[in-house]
Amino acid sequence: MITKMLDEEMWLAISGTALKVVLLTIGAYILIRVVRIIIRKSFSVRFKGPIKVTGRRHQTLSKLLENVVTYVIWFMAMVTILSLFSINISGIIAGAGVVGLAVGFGAQNLVRDVITGFFIIFEDQFSVGDYVRINQAEGTVQEIGLRTTKVQAWTGEIFIFPNGNVTDVVNFSLHNSIAVVDLSISHDSDLAKVERLIMEFLETVQPNYEEVISPAELLGVQNMTATEVVMRLTAETLPMQHFGVARRMRRDLKEFFDARGVELPYPRMVVMHREPGENMADAAVVKK
Amino acid sequence: MITKMLDEEMWLAISGTALKVVLLTIGAYILIRVVRIIIRKSFSVRFKGPIKVTGRRHQTLSKLLENVVTYVIWFMAMVTILSLFSINISGIIAGAGVVGLAVGFGAQNLVRDVITGFFIIFEDQFSVGDYVRINQAEGTVQEIGLRTTKVQAWTGEIFIFPNGNVTDVVNFSLHNSIAVVDLSISHDSDLAKVERLIMEFLETVQPNYEEVISPAELLGVQNMTATEVVMRLTAETLPMQHFGVARRMRRDLKEFFDARGVELPYPRMVVMHREPGENMADAAVVKK
Amino acid sequence: MITKMLDEEMWLAISGTALKVVLLTIGAYILIRVVRIIIRKSFSVRFKGPIKVTGRRHQTLSKLLENVVTYVIWFMAMVTILSLFSINISGIIAGAGVVGLAVGFGAQNLVRDVITGFFIIFEDQFSVGDYVRINQAEGTVQEIGLRTTKVQAWTGEIFIFPNGNVTDVVNFSLHNSIAVVDLSISHDSDLAKVERLIMEFLETVQPNYEEVISPAELLGVQNMTATEVVMRLTAETLPMQHFGVARRMRRDLKEFFDARGVELPYPRMVVMHREPGENMADAAVVKK
Amino acid sequence: MITKMLDEEMWLAISGTALKVVLLTIGAYILIRVVRIIIRKSFSVRFKGPIKVTGRRHQTLSKLLENVVTYVIWFMAMVTILSLFSINISGIIAGAGVVGLAVGFGAQNLVRDVITGFFIIFEDQFSVGDYVRINQAEGTVQEIGLRTTKVQAWTGEIFIFPNGNVTDVVNFSLHNSIAVVDLSISHDSDLAKVERLIMEFLETVQPNYEEVISPAELLGVQNMTATEVVMRLTAETLPMQHFGVARRMRRDLKEFFDARGVELPYPRMVVMHREPGENMADAAVVKK
Amino acid sequence: MITKMLDEEMWLAISGTALKVVLLTIGAYILIRVVRIIIRKSFSVRFKGPIKVTGRRHQTLSKLLENVVTYVIWFMAMVTILSLFSINISGIIAGAGVVGLAVGFGAQNLVRDVITGFFIIFEDQFSVGDYVRINQAEGTVQEIGLRTTKVQAWTGEIFIFPNGNVTDVVNFSLHNSIAVVDLSISHDSDLAKVERLIMEFLETVQPNYEEVISPAELLGVQNMTATEVVMRLTAETLPMQHFGVARRMRRDLKEFFDARGVELPYPRMVVMHREPGENMADAAVVKK
Amino acid sequence: MITKMLDEEMWLAISGTALKVVLLTIGAYILIRVVRIIIRKSFSVRFKGPIKVTGRRHQTLSKLLENVVTYVIWFMAMVTILSLFSINISGIIAGAGVVGLAVGFGAQNLVRDVITGFFIIFEDQFSVGDYVRINQAEGTVQEIGLRTTKVQAWTGEIFIFPNGNVTDVVNFSLHNSIAVVDLSISHDSDLAKVERLIMEFLETVQPNYEEVISPAELLGVQNMTATEVVMRLTAETLPMQHFGVARRMRRDLKEFFDARGVELPYPRMVVMHREPGENMADAAVVKK
Amino acid sequence: MITKMLDEEMWLAISGTALKVVLLTIGAYILIRVVRIIIRKSFSVRFKGPIKVTGRRHQTLSKLLENVVTYVIWFMAMVTILSLFSINISGIIAGAGVVGLAVGFGAQNLVRDVITGFFIIFEDQFSVGDYVRINQAEGTVQEIGLRTTKVQAWTGEIFIFPNGNVTDVVNFSLHNSIAVVDLSISHDSDLAKVERLIMEFLETVQPNYEEVISPAELLGVQNMTATEVVMRLTAETLPMQHFGVARRMRRDLKEFFDARGVELPYPRMVVMHREPGENMADAAVVKK
């Protein structure tokens, strides 16, 4: 009777196990289908916004993701089914674990890139067309991708860097820029007269430069070295127009001063001559 | 009878399992509801203070968080329910673990950013409008966000950096600043006379400059090089007014000295001439 | 009877175990076969594209991978079989775990290299023949490999670096380049006349240089130092032609100016002479 | 009868479980109460010493800690209660583990800051009012906090940095300082006479400077370059008085030397003239 | 009877356990033998290729590896046997785990070195005799070892570095090199004439230099500074012959120019003299 | 009867559990007592040697350690007791694990500091009073502590750094030092005569300087630049006496040479004059 | 009867447990004895070779290791015994795990140092007496220890660094060195004559210098700047004799040239004078 009971139990167990195997297989299959559809939808919907993903890459990435997910789900299902037959799966798990560890570590940069990329767009740190400086790259943002960003320098080269490397962003396109012109004048100059001339010149700036949006200013004496007095002039311009405005101001200022006969200083040096004969006689610098 | 007992037991087990499944599902649902409400409340209440979160982002972030939490809770519930059917879930856990590991590592920067951001506000290290220097960024704080901080340089560009990068903060707006002016005078000058003149000048500083809040001082001879003696002058000013005050002091000092006929030194050099003919004859430097 | 039952159970268990051992061995064998075929196929199919893998390496890598996979699968099978005999395999797993840990850590660079390499090709950051700058390496891309990239400098040396080191790519071959020529002129020069001459010269650039694809421009006064005024000229060229164009423009400009008698400035200095006798007498710089 | 036994057992199990739930809930509640009281006491007692915690922050931090502890204890209690109902909690633990991992990694900086902060105070590395240099920050310590330290530079700006960044401390306030004055004299000078004069001057230092606490010394010839001989003078002063003392010594030394007619050297150069005509003729440097 | 059954069961268990112990011991012994033979074979066969392992080291390393493997296998066997006696081995495992962790972390550099070393040889990045630059080391590769590489500088010193440090390799021996000679000429020179002379000289290069494998070229005006015009000449040479060729070209060019009376420029400066008397009078730079 | 048996079993279990609780509590209590005594003994005995621990800190650290140990042991005991009541303690362990992880990571620097500190003393790398350079700190070792080392610079400031930062130690007090004096002489000098004079001078060094312990040497011509020939003189001195000896040697050498009428060189320059009129005429550098 | 059976079983269990405790205690004791003997033997035998371990340290280290091993084995034994009484030891393990984690991380540098140290000796990278450069340390290797290496600079100071910091070794003692002498000659010189003279000089080198082991060579014109032509001379010397040989060659070369009346060049400059009056008139650089 007990044998019968065992039989009955065994059959119960066997049929239960068979049922579980079937259910797990179906469940895994359905899960894969669902995940695939989600992936496809996400790709066709979500990244329509500021991220530019070309068609070809779109497809490649979508398929890659589908493959990875399919493999992972089937692996889980197989492991679970094996464990139904009371087979200790520690070995399999451990083997997969070492691979998983290496991949997990190796892939952390990838995850970091995507997370940072998400925040760049979410926080609107910069957008396509902005003039930015990010690490060594300085130029116009050309493309903000899932994993990398492209910036074009003014001399034509393209900087491509992973988003995870974007830590300190300098964005020049969000606010008006300030054009800064430093003017060296000689110590011999009459400071008051020079200032008067500069003020006269500055009044001509805003009317003549359309990119300048407020009256140009004379900040004052920025520096006073042994050879020159440095005057600093500033002008608020539209974003990123300060390079051009500063160039033009330098040119106009030079012409303005030339026309009025103001000389800009060359380096100067006072030279005291001593004859070779004087050399040692003179050595007793300590006079008396 | 034993079969009957087994039946009874089985039915007990089945009904117990069914109950647990229902309870778990309901519990998970309620938990999600509660967590969602907490998230929404937190967002509408807590960050009213110094952090500026615009409406749109507010909503996005709140929804993102809700989604993540919903997915995580359902995942846990599903795993727990599966385990009720005596299905070994090691496989699922292991699979989720590798993903979790990669995400955990990738997200640690995010956590670090938010924790540091919390402490910046909590410790009031700086607030919007302060003039600060943080790494390469120097300028006025424009916005302290959940994850990033924005600083505007005086020339208009915006620095954007994650809070986790904020290690050494230099805040210029908490205390009065000191304007420092270094004045080079010639070695030939009569030091006592020059000092007398400087003292005379310094007495005119506080009355004429409204940003200077205590009498300007002559620190003394800061340096003595082969070509010049450097005198250092200081004036305590309102926070961040020291750039302007130093510029004006340099200008006024120059005018003051010019008016009194004091010459500032050009680099000097003593030149000893030797004729080409002398060249080799003279080679016996060791005389006698 | 119970002994009999135990016997029966035991035989059941023994036969079950034997069955499992056989099944596991066969399963492992089949798995290895399948994986090997997949590896071979992948190697002969997938990397036909932009990655250049020579025949010999192809074979070596393929065999290496097959060996590693074979060892790993047999190890898992053995561990699983041992566990069927109720032998605690924690010791084996732990031993393998330490080795796995060291290998996992040591191999993470390898994984990172391959992942980054995949993205370089997938995102088309650069391709063979492009002129790029990656860290210290600057030159023409010669080969993009599974793990490393080779770049040939213009002076002939080859830079070889793992793909994981490729973070910031500067690609010069994607867009037109800008040739930049800086021209120093003397402060004494008549700026307007010089500008007129430069404009005259620039008109001759596009017609005479086939690599220049738009009229050359005079950007303006880039800098104004104590000794010179720096004028900047630019010309848009085909990608990577800017070095040659700039060289030729400098040459032609020099000839153009020489022909018209314009002098380029040598460094200038104003020298004031003082006699040694004057030295101390003159010390009272503060006159009167 | 067996059914009855099962019933009895079941009721025993149910009542036992119920008891455990009640006990766990009460235990958790009591534990929270106790921990809260400990936190409050710690905050009001322990940090009275050298750490300055303002009232408001005190309260905020104390509440924050209480909240965190409360959440953690309730989470543990819930998990333990769930496990009483034979619900496998691996899923919950795993979920919490990923979050915990990210938080644990993200929070390690925080822990490091507090540990280092504890040691700064415990080892008395510096205290409020000391003049220190820590990384780029140089100035007077203003506040040593739980997590950060504040240092005020002499020009007014405040440096704020986490204690974990404090590795190399330079403390200027623990010992007397040495004022160092380097004096350049001409190669033509009579060294013995100059030394005699310097010794004469140094004797006047300690009597006239109250910050100098031992006779000033002439260290000797520190350097001998092509243009000058550098003599080094030192004077031991009270802590941090060396800047002021060195400035005053430079000034007094200059006056002392001026009064005795000793000239300090300008850079010198020997110039050999060659006529343009000599140029090529002379080319045969190899004479004969 | 039950006692008897227990006895029987016990004896079964005991005999089974004894059997397992014997089997495990024998298995471990055989495994060690096998692994040892594999190690010896690998050492005598595999590294015959490009890696140079001297006899003595060969033996040492082989023995070291044998010892480590022997210890590890016996440790695993012991742990497994202990677990057969139902002794909880967590303690042992944990103890070994901490040691394993430290060793695993400490050894990861070793693993990294060997993996990178394998790839250097497998990818043929450089081989013995190549002239390479790797980090600070520049010279001829002397030996590529299991863990380290040796490079001999041209001045005789040997650089020894672990392969894991080899990230960016610069290999000079794979392609022809380019000898680069920069020639400074005076602004006063007649550019066309100089170019004609250089072209004349370049035609003599390939016929006279056997290492030069294509006609030498005049690249053009590389730079134009305030004092000189820099002309760049290049010649393609056999690998690593560019240093010698450039040296000889410089010498021959100098002789060629000297023979034709072309002068190379000394630095030039325009000096404007002002008398000390002029000094202040002239101060009104703003004329009129 | 079965109920009775269950009762009996239950009472056995209950009494066993009670016994275990009591035993565990007592064991924990005794363990704490023992550990405390060990801590106290260690503190009063072991660190008497080279480490300087002041009384106050001694006590603080000893108490801190006692507290930590007490808390840890009670925590373990509680967890073990809870587990006796079949309460799943995974939750508690997991909670403690996250805290432990953060603390473990945060504390690793501490452990590293103490381990390195131990080796500094054990290997006698330096001891109190030695003159060392460790990273930026250069000066006399003042204190070697458990966690940090203090070094006093010669100008009075104290460097305090954790022992874990001590990687490269430069110890100046273990061996005799070498005083190095570089002497520039003019190219015009008669090298043989100068050498003879230097040799003559060097013979006077050892007899007159008590810190010099072997005859001073003339190393030879260290460098030969366009303006000077540099002769290097060395003298072996007692440890750390080389600064003083070099200073005195420079002084005596100067006096020695002055007495014998040897001139030390000023920078020299050959100047070729060209008149402004010559400028363009001369432009045809290519003569003929 | 069942009670009796239980009794019997219980006694069996109790006696079995007691047996296990005794066996474990004895096993641990024996293990400790064995390990101690192994440690002592290793210390007295193995490190006799190239590593220098003084007697005192020998003993200290050996005792330290013995203590650590003793503690670890007793801890494992205790944990195993506790687990025999069905006491859940997770708490203890977890507690020990956190400590182990911190120690494991903290100790990884130690492990790394020893592993690298082993390879330095095993690969014979350098040995005592070699002249090496390792990071900032340059000098003669004085001692290669278990954990650190000591290098003595030629000026007497000792560099002490952990072996783990030894990555890039530069060993100067393995091969002959090359003495390099750069000789600047004037552009005015007759290159062929100078070369003839140098060749004449070089022939005198090998016969007169015993450290020179092959004829000295004239490499050629290394550089050609605006002021000088640089000729490079080399001579192969015994290892590390190149400093002395180069010094002597410079001296002899100078004497050789002086004797033959060859002048070495001073920096030259062409000066064009312009009178202040010319200043503005001349401004029209654009002539005609």
Biggest protein-protein contact in the assembly: A-B, 80 and 67 residues
What is the number of domains of chain A?
3
Can you count the helices of chain A? 7
Shape, principal axes of CA atoms of chain A: rod-shaped
Family (chains A, B, C, D, E, F, G): Belongs to the MscS (TC 1.A.23) family.
Subcellular location (chains A, B, C, D, E, F, G): Cell membrane
Main location (chains A, B, C, D, E, F, G): membrane
Organism (chains A, B, C, D, E, F, G): Planococcus dechangensis
Layout of helices and strands, plus pairs?
The structure is a homoheptamer of 288-residue chains.
Chain A: H1 2-45, H2 55-84, H3 90-122, E1 131-134, E2 137-144, E3 148-152, E4 158-162, E5 169-171, E6 177-185, H4 191-203, H5 205-208, E7 217-224, E8 229-237, H6 242-259, E9 268-274, H7 278-281
Antiparallel strand pairs in A: 1-2, 1-5, 2-3, 3-4, 6-8, 7-8
Keywords (chains A, B, C, D, E, F, G): Cell membrane, Membrane, Transmembrane, Transmembrane helix
Membrane topology (chains A, B, C, D, E, F, G): Multi-pass membrane protein
Domain Mechanosensitive ion channel transmembrane helices 2/3 (chains A, B, C, D, E, F, G): 67-108
